[in-house]
């Protein structure tokens, strides 16, 4: 049988369109994100994030004490997961190769190749973008200035474990393990990808982990927006059309020449304007029910970070809260009926209110305790205490 042979660089281009579990190319792209981003954005000091403010007592002594108590891992499974993430974060970066690898230098080919690497390493969705200057933190946890060093980013997304979310109340003991499971795998992918890129002759720095792991120079939301992996949601965080809020993200910053993806528009802004399900199910009432506001140059529904962080760190009956993740209609599984609804809602605006009513009727926040497989227990001072 005759087989068409292509030069290596052309063969990469001929396989560029491939079927993915989450094909983002079915949604419209836009020249810029669907929410206003002005030139008035100020870089954020990492010490002034919700975690930093809680740690130094700005949210009160009870919250500060609870943060310190939560650091080792409040639940034995998340403590075990954090141990692995901590060890990953201590890896010494391998040096950048003295010479570039003898591979095509075309940004199109390199972008396709590095995305394939991400999928090979089991990322769910991979995007690329240029790093906006305001995407970098101004200072790190110790107060040291952060240099806006790398021009490009590879953004990696992994879904949270839906079975555990389904069985969880949304703010019980599985909050941390559900998030840490994604963080753990993202750390492995980001470290491996960065190691690989350095071996090819370009600089690369992995960005991953929960806020208590000092592995970030950038904020991930601006990168997710720029890479076309989601839109700003009512919960104040980025929402992906296939994963809803049920995902975590990591990035690899690099000087490898890459072609940036475009922002995505799947109709989320009018949907979130009408849908207040996440706000209604937020136990801390931190998610607003009103309109968007301008905050530090971004148009967003402004999350009350003090309420959110205070509830999370002082939760006596669990760990971190996933109530917004669990209740969001977009967090449904990627079955064909749900994907059909996603396409209808994205392309036919009049179907949005029907979808919201259906989500309320079906109970987007429904819990299935019969599927629970974990024990309710608190881990403190190396002692495990069962919770009633």
Structural account:
This protein has 14 helices and 12 strands. It is of the alpha+beta class. The protein has one domain (22-364). The strands form 5 sheets. The protein has a 4-stranded antiparallel beta sheet with strand order 2-3-7-4, with helices on both faces. Strands 1-8 form a two-stranded antiparallel ribbon. A hairpin with a 2-residue loop joins strand 9 (293-295) and strand 10 (298-300). Helix 3 crosses helix 11 (305-314) and helix 4 packs parallel to helix 7. It is globular and about 60 Å long. It starts with 7 loop residues before the first helix and ends with a strand. The relative contact order is 0.17. The model is unreliable at 1-6 (pLDDT under 50).
SSE blueprint and pairings:
Blueprint (H helix, E strand, L loop, with lengths): L7 H7 L13 E2 L20 H6 L5 H10 L5 H14 L17 H14 L4 E6 L21 E8 L2 H6 L7 H26 L3 E4 L12 H7 L4 E2 L5 E2 L7 E8 L9 E2 L2 H7 L2 H5 L11 E3 L2 E3 L4 H10 L8 H5 L8 H12 L4 H11 L14 E4 L2 E4 L2
Helix pairs in contact: 3-11, 4-7
Total number of domains: 1
Principal-axis shape equals globular
Number of helices: 14
Helix content: 25-40%
Could you tell me the mean pLDDT?
91
Radius of gyration from CA coordinates: 21 Å
Report the uncertain regions.
Answer: 1-6
Please provide the ordered H/E string of secondary-structure elements: HEHHHHEEHHEHEEEEHHEEHHHHEE
Q: Roughly how many Å apart are the termini?
A: 68 Å
Strand tally is 12
Strands side by side in the biggest sheet: 2-3-7-4
Major sheet details: 4 strands, antiparallel
Question: Strand content of the residues, in percent?
Answer: 5-15%
Structural class: alpha+beta
